[in-house]
Amino acid sequence: xxAYSFTRPQYDLENAASYTSIPDQPAxxxxxxxxxxxxxxxxxxxxxxxxxxxxxxLLFVNQQSESQTKVNGTNQGKSSTPKPISPTAxxxxxxxxxxxxxxxxxxxxxSVENATYSWTNAILSWQRTAYHxxxxxxxxNDPNGPLFHKGWYHLFYQYNxxxxxxxxxxxxxxxxxxxxxxxxxxxxMVPDHWYDINxxxxxxxxxxxxxxxxxxxxxxTYDVKQVQCLAYPANLSDPLLLDWVKYSGNPVLVPPxxxxxxxxxxxxxxxxxxxxxxxxxxxxxxVNTTGISLVYETVDFKTYDMLDGYMHAVxxxxxxxxxxxxxxxxxxxxxLDTSVSGSGVKHVLKASLDDDKNDYYALGVYDPIEDKWxxxxxxxxxxxxxxxxxxxxxxxxxxxxxxxxRRILWGWIRETDSEYADIWKGWAxxxxxxxxxxxxxxxxSNILQWPVSEVEELRSEIVEFDNxxxxxxxxxxxxxxxxxxLDIVASFEIDEDAFEGTVEADAGYSCPTSGGAANRGELGPxxxxxxxxxxxxxxxxxxxxxxxGTNGKFETHFCADELRSSLAPDVDKVxxxxxxxxxxxxxxxxxxxxxxxxxxxxxxxxxxxxxxxVYPTRAVDGAARVYLFNNATKVSVTASVKMWNMGSADIxxxxxxxx
Length: 659
Ligand code: DQQ
Fold this sequence. Notes:
Blueprint: H1 36-67, H2 87-90, H3 121-127, E1 138-149, E2 152-160, E3 170-176, E4 182-189, E5 200-207, E6 213-220, E7 226-233, E8 244-246, E9 271-272, E10 279-287, E11 290-298, E12 304-306, E13 312-314, E14 320-329, E15 345-353, E16 358-367, E17 372-375, E18 386-387, E19 394-401, E20 406-413, H4 419-425, E21 427-428, E22 430-431, E23 435-439, E24 447-451, E25 459-470, E26 474-478, E27 485-494, H5 496-500, E28 526-532, E29 540-548, E30 554-561, E31 575-579, E32 588-595, E33 598-603, E34 608-613, E35 625-630, E36 637-646, E37 651-653
Parallel strand pairs: 1-21, 4-37
Antiparallel strand pairs: 1-2, 2-3, 3-4, 5-6, 6-7, 7-8, 9-10, 10-11, 11-12, 11-13, 14-15, 15-16, 16-17, 16-18, 19-20, 20-22, 20-23, 23-24, 25-36, 26-35, 27-32, 27-36, 28-29, 28-35, 29-30, 30-31, 32-33, 33-34
The structure holds 2,5-dideoxy-2,5-imino-D-mannitol.
The site of 2,5-dideoxy-2,5-imino-D-mannitol (DQQ) has 13 residues, from strand 1, strand 5 and strand 14.
């Protein structure tokens, strides 16, 4: 194989025809006359601040190097003296992207920032995931431009090379043979042109029929406008796609009239127009508070025509970020390439709502002639109906994997602990385990998401528990070897008599407002508790809660309760969840992937999904336990569980110099 070098193409700074040049920094204010006393005070102040600042920096550097010694996947943190996060360090949160046209990137609950838990380095180290994709250090957000090329899966991602908070957004790049083990490559694109100097933001890849790869991304310009830019691999025969060329005519699109300069971002993968001679892309935006998707047509990805109107718009949903648009087959389980259209196909339209930071999707029908997408059920339109994930999951993106004929979904999962803890540990955010997406042929009204089968390569010892009887109010500990790294598959059956004898139970129930798993009803909750300690002073229940309305209709809710997930006050603790269809003859089934501070849970084969971030203080490493529980007051439950210990993914830097 050819030797790979780290050199990337040098880009010339270009002049923009339609933009004025970058203004110089304002000249510093001319000095005002000052008295002797004042200068002395100033000098003393400067001296004091410098010493203070220096000691802070030394303290911080010391902490940083300690917390960064752990290599991804090993999670062998040793216990150390508790080191409280300095109260001084709490007073000034690092700056965010608001001024740069995106909203706050951490969006934690307000109370979190004021609390004072003394995290130890060992626990912070434990929080790092073992088989989810993470860069070694620093901040990561949206997945970008995923694709399969010459035997490698490529993942690009929003990355800050400088720190564990959002900023200076660069495209990180990693490759994998199996979507689980990853090799980090040099950055694909850095903010180095006037049109993306404030950030190489989110984008998508399109693979053309002749094998060319087109990457469209949003550039945040020197004057904080959002524009779309074109890039392509310098050498298509390179399986690693190391070098990326930014098109000399960038930007290829600027905000059209009537669209705010900060409301125009995240181009999708392109699909072919009905006559097959043009490509279409959609870009999210808003008009007042209506979320919209604009559509452009192009032949060469350099010049574009905007189509009239919007492909779709939903009043009250605000700015649509990271729009995704793709077909799903109504009869086959394989995924479809993005240009597939016609009978037997539904189209998913997804928007990441900037206002509430959740990913909403809807199933509908695309009319390529009119270029309009119509939701199957207007009550479940984009932004007001179904979500990909009812926990923490945002800015997701799918791609068609031509290698295995499936559609794969990636999503960004942020931290929900204190921002100061993130700075301390030196990293923030993970990517979800990639999920296959398909139409749910049984319900016809939702998609199914399921972890890619490759994750099962990491399964080792299995422990099985069959037909465990759980009377009302019971809890059963389950013995496992690696409680922080598990793949749990569980099913539950309800005692039919109690079920039928119920007149009405908890009509109007909703996971988020329920008070969590401690709240008992006739027919729920029942499920598993992960990352619990011996006395259950900590634990995260993942569970079902069945209700019966006055109309005699049973409904099932799938919830994840973080309320007791940690004794630390400075982490978000939320009860997540939503309804999940359970069809006649089906058991209540769940799967949870536990990987240190993340728990991804799938109900009924992936109809409803919840991702939690949890930060226990006691239920870590060998002290963590798994339980089965039934906290219902009336119904008995029979549970069967399979649990696999999960190994660690091999995630490291690509040995380019050894090629
Ligand atoms: N993240 C990117 C934007 C996108 C946002 C900036 C979504 O392109 O809208 O980092 O998280």
